[in-house]
Amino acid sequence: MLENQGLKKRQLFSAQVDLSKFNDKDFDQATEDEKKQQDVMGESTTFFKDGMRRLRKNPLAMGSIVVLVLIIATIIIAPMIVPYKYSQIISVNGIRDKTAANLEPFEYSKLETKYMEETGEKLFPHIFGTDSLSRDYFIRVIYGTRVSLSVGVVASIMVLIIGLLYGSIAGYFGGAIDLVMMRIVDIIYSLPDMLIIILLSVVLNETLKSFIEGTVLQALGTNMISIFIVFGLLYWVSMARLIRGQILTIKNNEYVLAARCIGTKNGRILRKHILPNCLSVIIITTALQVPSAIFTESYLSFLGLGVSDPLTSLGSLANDARAGMQSYPLRLVIPAIAICLIVLALNLLGDGLRDAFDSKLK
Amino acid sequence: MAKYIGKRLILAIISIFIVSAITFFVMNIIPGGPFNKEKATSAEAQKVLEERYNLDKPLPEQYALYLKNLLHGDWGVSLHNGRDIWNEITSRFQVSAKLGGMAAAVAIVIGLVLGSIAALTRNRLPDRLIIFFTTLGTAMPSFVFATLLLLIFCLKLGWFPVWSSSNPNYVLPIIALSVYPMAYITRLTKTSMLDALNQDYVRTAKAKGVPGWKVIFKHALRNALVPVVTYVGPMVAYILTGSMVVENIFTIGGLGSTFVTSIVNRDYTMIMAVTLFLAILMVVANLLTDIAYKMIDPRITFE
Q: In A, which residues are within 8 Å of B272 by CB distance?
C-alpha cells in the first residue's frame, strides 16, 4: 500500500487524483502482451489503396466502372464473334447482296433467307440491322465506339504528357522561365479552342493528304491525325496550369529542400519527390479529359470533319444517320445512346476519382 | 484594377492578333487560289485579278494588307458566291444573336432556379432529380439532343413547326442550345449556394429573425452568384460553337450554319472571316467576364 495517510482528505470537487483507490500493482510496468493489446494501429496503407478503398464505397463510380468494363469487353470481343467487317458490304456466296440495305434489326435480306433455306446453314443475324450501303450496323457501332474511345484515351495521354512536362518545368524552375512559359499558356488559353480546331482540321485535311500517302497513318485518315495534332497543340494548357500550381506549393516543402541539400539532381527531385505528390490532380484531370475529348471528336465528326469513311466513329455514325432519320430513327438513337453512356460513365468515374483521391476533400 | 484591366486588354489583343495570323497563314497553306476555278481563266485575267486582290505580293505584305483592310472593316468577299462577307456576317449574326441570347437567358434563369432548389432541398427528392437530369444533360452532346428533339417533337409528334424564316419558331433550338449551359449553371449554383448557406452571415441573418425568403435571396443567392458570373464567358463560347450544329440541324440560317456550310463548300475566305469574327466575340466575352468577376467580388485581389 502507498503511504497516502499523510495526504490531506480529498476535496469534493478537486481534480487531484485520489491515490487511495490504487494499489502497487497498478503501477507495475506493462508486460509485452499488454503492450500489444494497446496497439490499435490500422494496417498501413498506401496512396492508391486508400483512394481505391474510398472509390469502392462510391456506388455511382463503381457502377460506371462496370458499365465501362462491359463496353470495353464488348468492343474487344464482338468483332471476334460477329463474322462481318465494318467496311464489308454484305454478300451471300460471294455475290453482292443488293437486297441487304436498310434492314431492320435481326431481319434477313431476301437473298440471305433464300440461301439459308437452300443450305440449311444459319447466318449470323444483323443485330442492329444494316445501313444504306448494306453494311452490318452492329459492327459499325462497335468500331465507332472503338474509334471514339481510343481518340479520347490517346488525346488525353497526349495532353497528360505535354501538360506534365510543360507544367513541371515551369513550376519547378520558376523565375523568368516560368514567366515566359506561363504567358504563352495564357495566350493559348484565351484562344477559342473549338474554332481553331475546326480551322486546323479543315486545313490539315487538305495539306496532310500528300504527306501521309502510303504510310501507316493513311488508314487513320487526315481528320483523325488533325484531331490529335490539334489536341496536342491546344488542350494541354489547363493541365500545365494545374500541375504548375501544384508544384509551386509542393516545392517549398522541407523534404524537397532536404533532397536539394544532399545534392539530388533536379530531374530526380521532380520524379521522386514532387510528381508523386501531385498524382491525385493528374489522375483526376486525365480521367475527366477523356470524356471531353470524346465530346470534341464526336462534335467534329458531326460537322463532317471526323474520321474518314469507311472507318467510323460514334459522331460520324450519328451524322450519317441524320439523312434518313425519319425512316430509320434507330440508326441515330443507337450511337447517340452509346455516346451518352460512355461520357456519362466517364464523367461519374472522374467525379468519383476526385472524391476518392483529392486530399483536400478528405 | 487599372493595371489588371490593362494587362487583360493586352492579352486579348494579342490573342486576337494570333488568331488572325493563324487564320491568314493557314488559309494560304491550302493549295489553290481563289481564282482557280474549274473554268480556266486566261493568264491575263488571272494576273489582273491577282493584282486587284494583291495576291501577287509576298505573304507578309499580304498579311499586313489583310490586317489593314480588316481594321478598315473590309473582310473581303466570299469565294463561293462572291458576296461581301461583312454584310453576310452581320445579317446572319442577327439571327444567331437572337437565338444565342435567348438560350443564354434561359440557361441562366432556369439554371439559377434549379440550382437554388437543389441546394435548399439537399439530399431530398427534388435535389436528387435535378442532379440526375443535369448529369444527364452534361453527358449529351448538343447535336444528339437537337436531332432527337427535332425527330420527336417536330417530325413524330408535330408539336412544333419545322423552322423557316417566314415562320420562325425558336423553342426547340433554344432548348437544344441551352441544355448544357443550364445543367452546368445548375451544378455551379448548387455548390456555391450550399457554400453560401453555411456562412456565418446567413446564420446571423437567421438568428436576428430575417424572414427565410429574404435570407435566401438577399444573403445567400447574391453571394452564390459570384462563381456563376465566371461561367458567362465560357458559356458564350459554348453557345457560339454549339449554335453551329444546332442551327444546322434546325436549318436556321444563322452564323453557325453559315460557318458549317462554308466548311462544306470549302469557302476559305468565309471560314476565316467567321472564325475571326467569332474569336473576337469570344475573347471579348472572356475579357468582360474576368473584369466583371473582379469588380463584383472585392475580396479578390489583383496581381
A: 199
